[in-house]
Structure formats: structure tokens, C-alpha cells
Amino acid sequence: MRTQEKVTILMAVVSFITGVLLYVRITDYYQAADLWVEHFDSYLKTYIWVLWLLVGLLVLVDAVFLYLRYKEWDIGIWLGLGSVLIIFALGLVQFIRVPNYRDYHVTPYLISATAVEKKINQKTFTFDDRPIYFCRKTDPFYPQVKRKIRQYSLEQRNDIAYIDMKKMRRVLGEKRYLIVIRRAKVKSNNAIVYTYKGSQGHSKIVTFNNIQEPHRLKSALNFIDDGE
């Protein structure tokens, strides 16, 4: 087999592998971004831009290579192989340095004080109401509890809303704030309140207080998964 034919086969193999790597990462990007990403920063924008740029360069190099091979220009074959190898190396780098898309997902997500008031004070709940994490950001256990709730949300793909009670008091005023807190049965700085419609059609509020304690948080999250 002539050297020219060997180089052509090698280039075809490298081009195919490069194309597969780029296809996998581009597909992953759009699927994962649609699922997790809410705000695209410059890193994500650059990442997908480079992937598409490499696709364009790969197609261009292959097209030029076929033209030069048709013209039987030997040096063009080596230039084509060198270009494909460079694109392969760059594609491999992009394949390895895949972004952590989950880091871009905001959960637990902030809900407004008026939305909490409306939800807690309504007389009838729905079957798919989401729980609310009542917290005080000044509480020393807040970072730990929020981290565990975030971990749960990412693993179960079940986002939980949260409200800072200090901010809620400021927005609603003392009287309206106390009505919400009493109806929600919140008695601690870290609590999960679950509003839902039971199997018999009755609207219920179930509150898990002191969820900084691991067993209480576990009970709250299990309840979210299993319901009654």
C-alpha cells in the first residue's frame, strides 16, 4: 500500500473519531443546558462556540484535502493530516474539559414574600404544590441545610423554593407575617412547609421544623418524595 493511501486512511479515521467526539459534546451541551442552565456565562458561550468552530474547521479541512488529493498534490495530503491532528487534539481538550452544568442550576430558588403569603393563606391546595424552605440566612445552620437541600434537588430533579423570614417580615409587615408563620406552623429558623391536597381531597399543611437536625431533614425530604 502506497504511503499516500495510508495517510488517506489515517486521516479518515482521525476525522471520524474527531467528528464523534464533537458530536457527543455538542449533543451533551444542548441536553444538559436545557435541563440545568438558567443563565449562560461567557465560559459556556465560549465552550459551545469553540465546539462549532472545530466542526467547521474539520469539514473545511476534509473538503480541501479531497480537492488536493484529486489534484494529486502530495504536500497537500500531509498538510491535511497535520490539520486534522491539530483539530483532533483541540477537540479532545474540549471533550475532557466538559462544564459541570449542574453548577449553573439555581436551587433552592427564591420565592417572593407575597407569593408565599398567597400560597399559605389559600384555602385549597393542589396535588402538585411544591414545598417551601423557610429559613433565616443569619442562622449558623443555614449554609449546611441549604447545601443538603440543593444536593437533594439536583439528585431528584425536584426543586424547592425558599424564603428568608427576615425579608418576609420586612416586606409583609409584622401582622401579615405572623399570620403566615402561624398558619404555616413554622417554629424554627429552618423549616420545610409542604402544602398539598390529600388522597381524600382535603387540603393540608405539613411542617417540619428544626431541619438542621439530620433525621428531621431526612423525614421532610422523604415526605416530599412519598407524600402521605
Summed up:
By secondary structure, this protein is an alpha/beta fold. The protein is 62% helix and 11% strand. It contains 8 helices and 5 strands, in the order H-H-H-E-H-E-H-E-H-H-E-E-H.
Unreliable residue stretches: none
The residue-averaged pLDDT reads: 87
Biggest sheet strand line-up: 1-3-2-4-5
Whole-angstrom Rg: 28 Å
Q: Tell me the number of helical segments per DSSP (H or I, 4 or more residues long).
A: 8
Number of strands: 5
Structure, described:
23% of the residues are buried. The longest helix has 34 residues, at 3-36. Strand 4 and strand 5 form a beta hairpin. The mean pLDDT is 87. The chain is rod-shaped and about 85 Å long. It has eight helices and five strands; from the N terminus they run H-H-H-E-H-E-H-E-H-H-E-E-H. Helix 1 runs parallel beside helix 3 and helix 6 packs across helix 7. With 228 residues, it is of the alpha/beta class. A five-stranded mixed beta sheet has the order 1-3-2-4-5, sandwiched between helices.
